[in-house]
Amino acid sequence: MKTFSIMGKYVLLRAFSLFITVVIAVYLTLFIANWGGQLDDARRSNIEFDVTMAVNANPANHALPSSEVMKLIEERVEQEIIRQGLDRPFLIRSVGYLGEALSLGLGRTEHLTSDSGSRNVRNVLLERLPSTLVLLGTAQLIVFVLALIVALFLSRRYGSFLDRTIIALAPTSAAPAWLYGLFLILIFAAVLRVLPWGGIVAAPPPPTTWGYAMSLLRHMVLPVSAMIISSLFSNIYSWRTFFLIYSNEDYIDLARAKGLSPRSLERRYILRPTLPPIITNFVLVLINMWMGAVVLETVFNWPGIGRLFFQAIQLNDTPVIVGTVVIFGYLLALSVLLLDFAYAALDPRVRLGAGGGKK
Amino acid sequence: MSTKLKELRRAPSAWSKLKELRRYPSAIVGLIIMFIFIAFSIHTVFSLPLDEAVTLWRGGPGIWDDHPRRAEPAWFDWFTSDSLSRTIKVSLEDAGEMRVEPIGGGMNSVEVVLPFEFNYDTFPSEISLFTEATGAKEFSVYLRKPNGETVTLSENLGFRAHHIYRISLDSALRMQLNGASPHVGLFSENPSPGRDGKPLQGNYELVMLGEIPETTELHAAELVVFGQVHGAAGTDHLRRDLTIALRWGAPVGLLFGVLAAVGAQLSTFILGGIGTWFGGKIDAIFHRLTEVTMILPLLVVLMMVGHFYTRSLWVMLGVVILLSVFSASMKVYRAMFLQAKEAPYIEAAQAYGAGNFRIIFKYLLPRLSPVLLPQFIIVIPSFVFLEATLAVLGLGDPRLPTWGKIIYDARVNDALYMGDYYWMLQPAVALMLIGLSFSLLGYTLDRIFNPRLRKL
Question: What is the pLDDT averaged over residues B69-79?
Answer without folding.
Answer: 87
